[in-house]
Amino acid sequence: MKLFSRYTMVLPMAALLVAAPSFLNKDNPFSSGPAFAKNGGNGGGNGNGGGNGNGGGNGNAGGNGNAGGNGNGGGSGNANGGQSKAGGQSASLDGTSSKGKGNISSQLGALNAAHASPKALANAAPNSRVGKIAAYKAAAAVSTELDAAAAAAADAAVAASPTAQAAIAASGQADADLAAKQQALADLQADPTATQAAIAAAQQAVTDASTAAAAAQAAADQAKADAIAADPAAQAAQAAADAAAQAETDALNAAANKTPVSPEAKAALDALLAGK
């Protein structure tokens, strides 16, 4: 009985001594090791999680090594970061749009005074900025009117010229011939019984007709220019339109503090003045 009692006391103590190193081992999967692997995984690295593989004798530690897979959660974070970056690009595009508007305003410079009301434009002193912009507005209206008058006079001169009319008619006929040749070629190409020789001939006919149409158009343009140059009324109307265009440019430069005024700035100014 004493021998049995002694063994009953020794065996638990021996088990305790054997188990103690396991509890003290930092790499034990049942100690703080798995938490450390998890923290390492969240950091985006699997190295610490893999460290638990050293406890591979326990088997379960190897399973916990998969906890390093939590590092994939870091990938999700990167995806969110990508979305944030995309948002930044969108904001940049908006900023570019705003910058574009600011650039036009900068080009306008003193011409931004065109934001003045119609009443202010009408009553502004001639030498004031608004007054100069009003003078430009009036000059532009005259220029537009005289351009239309010059175009009408040119049309009248061409209509009165038999040579110009004959050239215009010839050009129209050449265009019609070209269209007919093109249609004939298309019909042959769609015909399964058409020979290659016939198609080649039709293609050559289109080429010839195209050359003839271009020559006829050039002859018509020259005949119209000759008719306008020979018509005194058309010449006078064009001279008046040219003078008005120069007056418009002078008035624009007088109103602006940044010259020459760019086409974009002029268009913006005209838009501001439209309807006033």
Outline the fold blueprint:
Layout: H1 2-24, H2 33-42, H3 47-51, H4 60-65, H5 71-108, H6 118-123, H7 129-159, H8 162-190, H9 196-229, H10 232-255, H11 263-273
What is the number of E strands? 0
* Biggest sheet character: none
Oligomer: single chain
How many separate structural domains? 2
The helix fraction, in percent, is over 70%
Mean pLDDT: 76
Radius of gyration, rounded?
A: 45 Å
Contiguous low-pLDDT stretches (5 residues minimum) are: 1-98
Quick description:
79% of the residues lie in helices and 0% in strands. It has helices spanning 2-24, 33-42, 47-51, 60-65, 71-108, 118-123, 129-159, 162-190, 196-229, 232-255, 263-273.
Characterize the structure shown.
- The protein has 276 residues and is mainly α.
- The protein has two domains: 1-109, no CATH class; 110-273, no CATH class.
- The protein is built from eleven helices and no strands.
- It has helices at residues 2-24, 33-42, 47-51, 60-65, 71-108, 118-123, 129-159, 162-190, 196-229, 232-255, 263-273.
- Helix 2 runs parallel beside helix 5 (71-108), helix 5 (71-108) packs across helix 11 (263-273) and helix 7 runs antiparallel to helix 10.
- The longest helix is centred in the first third of the chain and has 38 residues, at 71-108.
- It is elongated.
- The model is unreliable at 1-98 (pLDDT under 50).
